[in-house]
Design a protein that fits this description.
six-stranded mixed β-sheet; Immunoglobulin-like; disordered C terminus
Length: 247
């Protein structure tokens, strides 16, 4: 069975369309600054056109068009005409979109899909079980906070003064000798634009380390006790002899 020329032409067009555009996801913090960089070019940059959703954002052509910003981006945008790097301040959720750039009349294959997100909240470590004490076999700790607008969030835990280790929202602690001597637990929330740590939670399984009892005091023997009166009698007798001699 022969493959038609139309099939191969369609395949070539699909491959070309796929390789022409490469979407790069770019997160930005609401109220923060978004920075977008073009792909490197070997020649001197003489013209730049940035677009947002196919609408003009910034434009510059050397010796022909002065640097111009358009619509809502006026007054909060800076374009470096030497490097092509674009910076937009005071970003809002409405600035989410597809950003593309044309350098020296060539549309670059990179396009940025920007995603707005809030900073992570102040996390709080809490105990999930209603009852958790030093007598419990285990307890589950939770790193709590409203992350609905924070995008993809990663969680990290620190045991006492140890190192941060990535984990999930919850962490189970087992009541064993090692855990009993840990003083506290701390969690961290992190997303592409921010990170925050909780206040340390005192370890609900903490137990005061036990120390070996001190050695028993030395017992005075009966012989020592019986020797005291004898020694005192000898001293008194000697003093009486001395006094009689002097008289």
């Amino acid at each position: 069975m022969k493959t038609s020329a139309g099939f191969w032409l369609l395949a070539v067009l699909l491959v070309a369309a796929t390789s022409f555009s490469q979407t790069v996801e770019k997160y930005f913090k609401v109220g923060g600054t978004l920075q977008l960089s073009p792909q490197p070019v070997s020649a001197e940059i003489t013209s730049i056109v940035w677009k947002c959703d196919k609408n003009l954002l910034a434009e510059w052509v050397k010796d022909l068009i002065e640097l111009t910003y358009y619509s809502k981006f006026k007054g909060r945008t800076n374009l470096n005409t030497t490097t092509g790097v674009l910076e937009i301040r005071n970003m809002t959720a409405e600035d989410t979109g597809l950003y593309s750039v044309e350098i020296n009349n060539q549309v670059q294959s990179w396009v940025y899909q920007t995603v707005a997100m809030e900073a992570v909240p102040q996390p709080v470590v809490s105990v999930r079980l209603l009852v958790c004490s030093s007598a419990s076999k285990s307890c589950t700790l939770s790193c709590d906070g409203n992350v609905s607008a924070a995008g993809p969030v990663e969680y990290f835990w620190k045991i006492g003064d140890g190192e941060w280790k990535q984990s999930g929202t919850n962490m189970e602690i087992i009541n064993n000798e090692e855990t009993q001597h840990v003083t506290n637990f701390t969690c961290r929330m992190k997303n592409p634009v921010s990170e925050r740590d909780s206040k340390p939670l005192p370890n609900p399984l903490f137990q005061i380390p036990s120390f070996p009892s001190s050695s028993s005091p030395t017992t005075v023997s009966d012989d020592t006790e019986s020797e005291a009166p004898v020694t005192l009698g000898v001293v008194i007798g000697s003093l009486a002899t001395v006094v009689a001699f002097c008289l």
